[in-house]
Design goal:
270 residues; 12 strands; single chain; elongated; alpha+beta; 6-stranded antiparallel β-sheet
Length: 270
Amino acid sequence: MKQGSLKFICLIIWACITVLSIHGQDRPVVLGTWVLETFNGNGDSIYLWKTDASRFITKTDDVTYPITGYIDAFPSQAFRAGKVDGAPRSLGINGRFDRRGYNWIDLYPVLADDEDGLPVGIPIPGQMKSMNMWIWGSSLKFYLEAYFRDFQGVIHVVRFGDNLAFRGWRNISVNIPTNIPQSRWTTSEPVKRAMELGLDLSEHPQLRDEPAYPSLHFVKFRLWTQPVERVDNFYVYFKQFSILTDVFEALFDGSDLADPLNVQRLWAND
C-alpha cells in the first residue's frame, strides 16, 4: 500500500515537471549581456556622471564633497589583460559627511554633449533579468541601490546585496524582481476608440500605442550610509555596469503586427 502511494506521488511529480517543461518551451528566450557603462572615462561613453548628496555633506572653503574622478585601477581578477574597452580605469567617489546617519549620495548620468547637464535615463533593451557591477567597498556598512523608471513613470528600487562591508573588489549580481512591469499586452483605450471611429492613426501620432514591451530606464545609483558606520572620509569605486536581458521581446517575429498604425495600413491596402 505504501509503495503504491509512493509510486502515485512520483507519477504526479513527473507529470507536473513535464507540463512545466513543455509550457516553458512555448516562448523563446534570447538572453544577451549588455554593458550599460564601462566607467572608463576615456570619452567612449555618451554619458557623464554627476553627483548629488543629502544635507549633511561636508563643505569647506576649499572643497565640496562628494568628489568624483576616474582612477587608474580596476579588478584584476576580471580584467587581467589590463584593458577592457580602453584604458583600465574605474570611477571613484570620495565622500564625507559632518555627522553619522542615513546620509546618501546620488550618482546619475547626463548626456556628454548636454550643456545644461540635465539627468537622463539610460534605456534598457529587452526585458532585464539581472544586473551586475564590480564594486570596491572599503569594508564599510554602506549599501547601494539602483533606480529604474518603468513605462508608466513609476520608480523602482533594486538593492545591490545587503551592504558593501567587504574588502577589495567584488562583482555584485542581483536578479530583477518580477513585479517590476516590463511589458504591456493590450492596446490602449484611446487607440481602440480611434480605430472604432475609423480615424487614420497616421494623422494622429499622439494616439499611437506604446510598444508592446516598453523598456525600463536606468535613473541613478544611490549610496546610503548607516548610523553605525563612520562617514568622516570614505571611498567607493565602480567598474563595468552590465545587465542580462531577454532581447526576444524587442525582436519577436511579427512585431510589426502589434503596431496599430501598421495594422491599419495593411488592412487599408487589402
